[in-house]
Amino acid sequence: MKLLTNVRKLLLLNCRQSMKQRLMTTTIKKATHDQPVITSAQLDELEQNALMRHHKNNVPRIRQLVEALQLSRHSTEEDTLQQLAAELQQLPNATHPRLVAYDNQPLELAKYEHRLHPEVGAKQFSELARALNLYRMEHLGNYTGHKSYYLMGQLAMLEQAIIQYALQSLTRNGFKLISVPDILPRDIIESCGMRTEGERTQVYKLDTGECLSGTSEMALAGFFANRQLTEQELPLKVTAVSRCYRAETSGLHEEKGIYRVHQFTKVEMFAIASPEQSESTLEEIKNLEIDLFKKFGINFRLLDMPPCELGAPAYQKYDIEAWLPGRQMWGEISSCSNCTDYQAKRLNITYKRARDRAVVHAHTLNGTATAIPRLLISLIESYQNGDCIQIPEVLVPFMNVQHSITKNKKIPETKLVKFIRSA
Amino acid sequence: MLRLRNIVGQCFILRRHISALYITGDKANENYVTLQPFLDFAGTFRDKVALQQSIASRGLNINLETVLTKYAAYQTQQKHLQRLEEEREVVTKELKSLTKSGDSTELLDKLRARGKQLRNDVKSLKQKLYPIEDDFIHDFLHLPNVLHAHCPQTDVEKLIYRHKPPPNAALVANHLDHKDLVHFIDNNRYYMMEQAAHFDVDAMQAMARYFVTNGDFVQTCNPDFVRCVLLEANATPLTQYHLVREEHLLNKLNTAYLTGGGAFESFLGTITKLSVYPSVLPLRYVACGRSYNREDGLVNGPTPSLYTATQTNAVQSFVATQTAEQADAELEQVLNLAINFYKALDVPFRIVYVAAASLTPSESLRASIEVYAPSLKRYVCVGRISNYGDYVSKRILFNTRRDKHYDFLHLVGGPVLYTTRLIAALIELGIKLEANKLPGALQLGPSLQAMNQHQRDLQEFKDLFK
Q: Which of A102, A221, A412, B42 is the most exposed place for a label (fewest CB within 10 A)?
């Protein structure tokens, strides 16, 4: 019967009355057996939300299970209950009401232009980096894997400079640095709203059954799992530098090179806030991102993402796209989301509310400070200047006071032999 | 019967596994050959005494005599094959010239019949040779590198440097008791906070920067997955790393392993089959990255701690030289840089040449950098530098051209810093986790984590005018 109560609690979490109310409140009441099971109208609303977000629509299945449960109300249908609980876990978060009118198109909120780029003739990252001997991606599949890459010389130093600069900026803004693990148990990743099974999973699995983290948000969320914080501690802001592993592949021409890779380094922001704080915390994270990219002096735009781009956990999400002059396209370099209590419920992250000492679920938020490969594309393409690349002023102190990236003749060119006859 | 089949199956799997590095012609259709190692039979067997000594000192279960017998059989068959092929070539040439001159058909028929016979003989001999080749070559690839003259051939390591004696404190708090700095769950999962987290990033970056500025190293960022063929080429035990399950694996033998970009093996991808001009030598690389060796730390057990953890930030060094003498000098230079780095922390540490029995088959010498770990009451390895000679280069065809022939390059390298273990030791030794005193550290004013709120506000105000 305890299980039934839990499932009913879950049902209730997903079927609060008004949209606004559903979005910004947390459930603390305990469900009793006498409370009505989710209504058909509420299921309609959940289905509409899932469809609007282009999310897998499992509401028909939930409907079937609820009906089965109602029919066998007095017997313990453990299997049905478990299935229902699993299906409910798969439902996406609610959606911010302002996004409903977006018609699946992002809304450009602002554009920041710091540089003048030539309309034509700008070279692409791969061409520039290869000419300077600072990058290798070809003929590596059999040795270090599909889409693997080496950054050499000043390009590798630039990666570390970006990390240091981002950390400096974040710690000055009250973010605490945490070293995080990259190998995580499956349940933590799934609690963050990522599927680990199925054909199109983006999650790498190891021989031990554990998974590789796709973003440090997962490790950080796992760190706070089952923790009860106090309201005074909120908003709690942390940051991590981690290696991110993504099994996704892309055959798209515009995503060639290091634009979409299986492994990369990222500085991530993660925050835990009260429901009252979460909207302003998201704005703070967004502003920090904007500030970072302004300092890098690249051209970028801020987008408010429509429901179909939110994934499962986000209630709302901002993306930042940088202009990549070599590719002549906008490329996503950062994003930040408010996951409200979606992850917190799955990971049991709570806080004790000061006013009534009630223990309620917190809200979680995350944002990308710097994801290296795409930022490198943006910086190198934006700062190209004939035979060299200018280094953005803010990164110069982290680059041993070098002001430009030039060809490195100490790095061998990629001249390969096929075979050397054995003696 | 079923059990027997299982055992045979397992043996088959094991045998197949080895073949990622060497695949005989009969299996090349089903298994894609990615690399053909240079097999230096003459060079390997030139000094049999040294090879035998290396096998014995490492405690390897290899009978050199048996390998040599297999080599003799392999050579006999190869010579036979060569003779047949030479004869076939002669017949082909004769056939061509006879056809052109329009000579007697009788002789032509005879030659054609001989040619056919030879073709069949070659084919059947090759079929006969494949198992002999398979058997011998895999034994050959298991032979270890010869040992360096400095490598202790006894069970005892050789001390070559020591800084500060270990402290005598009777009671030491374990680093895991510092809950404000470390949250340890298991060997795969731990978190570090506050100064420990900053030191984790800053120390790694400082050391890499120090190698770049003071050692003329080129910094790199390397991939995290390394395929089986390179691990075999480096004679890395496959159990050291996690196997990555890939959904669409094209070559079932050449699976990927999670080494981390801060592992030595990760450098091998960029030098496999690479031919370089002598002008870039010595080639010195240094990389910052993760290292995920799941066996390396287990010697610091049995109690799981940061000393036994799989994941760590690491600084990995890699040097390629043309000669063995240059390789020796480079190893010394890397050690000198490492000594300066650890001395700046004023931590009790030592450098030892590890006993032969602890080396992997590809290493001829290993210097281990060890910091004193009070909770374990002994030294733990926080870095190591190995000399591989040209053993690995031959297997991955890393070469330089000289007078129309190939010189295989001598490799020196290894992780010079594992941050996780160093942080554990520093906490226990009561040494402050301050990266700004390290050589190579960024000198950008007071460290940010040390700033109070007023200083932070002031800094923010100053930043507005930048």
A: B42
- Across the range B153-157, mean pLDDT stands at 89
Name which of A164, A174, A210 is nearest B205 (Cβ-Cβ).
A164
Q: Is any Cβ of chain A less than 8 angstroms from the Cβ of B78?
A: no
Q: What is A100-405's CATH topology?
A: BirA Bifunctional Protein; domain 2 (3.30.930)
Complex ipTM value: 0.90
Global pTM reads 0.89
Cβ A223–B191 below 8 Å, yes or no?
Answer: yes
- Better pLDDT: A274 or B10: A274
Q: Which of B197, B277, B280 sits opposite A179 (nearest CB)?
A: B197
Share of chain A above pLDDT 90, in %: 68
Pairing state between β A176-179 and A236-245: parallel
**CATH 1.10.287 residue ranges for chain B:** 2-142
Q: Which residue has the higher pLDDT, B11 or B328?
A: B328
Q: Across A3-17, A391-405, B244-258, which has the greatest mean pLDDT? A: A391-405
Mutate to test the interface with A, among B213, B225, B452 (most CBs of A within 10 A): B225
Partners of B261 on chain A (C-beta within 8 Å) are 243, 263
- B-chain CB neighbours of A410 within 8 Å are 218, 280, 283
Q: Which CATH number fits domain B2-142: 1.20.140, 1.10.287, 1.10.10, 1.10.4100?
A: 1.10.287
Residue type, B161: Y
Contacts of A318 (CB under 8 A, 6+ apart): A109, A282, A286, A289, A302, A303, A304, A305, A335, A336, A337
pLDDT, tens digit, 9 for 90 and up, residues B344-382: 999 999 999 999 999 999 999 999 999 999 999 999 999
3-state SS string for A321-365: EEEECCCCEEEEEEEEEECCCHHHHHHCCEEECCCCCCEEECEEE
